[in-house]
Amino acid sequence: MNRGHWACFVFIITPASTIFCGPPLLAAKKTLGRQDSPTAGERVSVVKKLYQEKRWRQMIELTPPSPGDSAELDYYRGLALAHLEYWAAAEQALRAGQQKQPHDKRFPLELAGIAFKQKNYSEARVRLRLALRMDPHDAYGIDFLATVELLSQNFEAALELWNRIEKPRIRELETDPQPRLDPVLLDHAFAFSPASVLRLEDYRTTRARLDLLGIFPRYQFELRPRTGEISGEGSKNQPARAREDRGENFDLVFHNVERNGWGESRLEGGLSLLRGLPYETLYPEYFNLKPSAMNLSSLVRWDKNKRRVFASFSSPLHHDPRWRYELYADARNEYWDLSQTFHAAGLPLTNLNLQKVEAGARIRSVINGRWGWSTGLEISDRWFRNLPGHAAPPFANGPAIKYRAGFDYKLLDQPQDRFTLGSSLSAQAGRFFASPSSLFFQTQGSLWTRWFPKPNGDDFETIGRLRSGKSAGRPPFDELFILGLERDNDLWLRAHIGTRDGKKGSAPLGRDYVLSNWEVNKNIYQGGLFNVRLAPFLDCGRIYDNAGGFGSQKWLWDTGGQAKLRILGGVTVVFTYGNDLRSGRNAFYLTVEP
Prior knowledge:
The protein has 13 helices and 24 strands. The longest helix has 14 residues, at 87-100. Helix 6 (106-117) runs antiparallel to helix 7 and helix 7 (121-134) runs antiparallel to helix 8. By secondary structure, the protein is of the alpha+beta class. The chain is elongated, with a radius of gyration of 33 Å.
């Protein structure tokens, strides 16, 4: 073979076992009109010209794989192979060029395109993020990554990215199905409007307002591209590329499940009403009265040791979805066994009876998607029976009045990493009109995290929460904190059941506490009728009350797991198994959540 006429044959093995061969440099010489071998720069010029002419096979012939070739030739070789859908060979060529020019954003962008074409969205996401670290303002990369996030059902991440390039623009807002809610009230719940860019902060504010209405247990938003349309008035004289709607405009569809009356069906209403039947409780509820998001909720419990009747009415304030008021009343007749948790000498309180009535009002407000606040006033009265004659406070009879306020604030919300860090702080100040009268104060604060380690879906959802509370003054007995599993208590230490022989009081009580809860939720089965999740957990806490005779002597550690069965997308049956790592005792608990 004549060395002056280099005729090295190139073989490319593809998934289809296609083989290309030919004298690559002859094509370059013919294009340049010369007989001597072209330089590297001339080869690049020829390849670019072939690329503009979409002559992919000739590009491949002209750029055989060679460690000595420039990154530019590797790049165009990869493009040609990708156009012919020889994905493995294209990726090999682009990776070779990336090794030579690791800071060239074109390589990860094109590699992301190859992964995208093969529907490997996770790999496409990794490569696009690498490209955007090299150039954070690359509009193509931002748009591409937003599309990947949207296809992965990470709506907020897509919005966060698109907002950087003033997208997406909403043309129309649709609802599917049309809610019964007053259209004016629903319209005011949306913090955005058609013919404008959908901002992430407006989207989050909208979700917070919808949640405050309390009638949409499940909903989601969908972006539908408006393709092939003329965007905007007066576009007739614009260039063709500017006139075409290339994904700049979208319709936004609000898919929703609305709660109306007792329920959308007899089955749904019956499940909601009877969800507490295993523990002698009914939950009569009525939603969206008028329909103006006026909701009635109640609880009736006939357990002989924990009788209770509760009712509340809530509604938007002045027909404004940013504000909501609630009026409520509560009456209890409970028996407590404090023999294991009250440490004062000479007071074996095994059958303490507490009767209490209270009524109150509160207002909640959504400022935006990041934070909101609440305030309220409550009056109560309590009576104790079966007390020894020399019982001391906090077992004193008498009325009390208290004012409470609180706020919630998201400290960190990273939709691309699917990680949220939130906080809350609440305080209440009251006067207990016992003999003698006394003031009391209580504060509670919490930090919580929620992380989805997978790019889409809720598998392996990780939830953590750290809470703390402190009291000052002389709070009534029923205002003490409780660490344990009890349906009227939300400070769960999941191997410490709050009742003993049906009576409250077996879980640690006190004036101050620290509590940490962690769990990981793994999807086991997802079907049309029900979903099953398993959640291993670890709880740790301690409660203090040196002056009042309550409290835990040491830190308490509980571990175990929960099985969560969600029925028809509605109520969730939660079975909890916990093990007290200090005592070795096991706990089994069943509850039903709305």
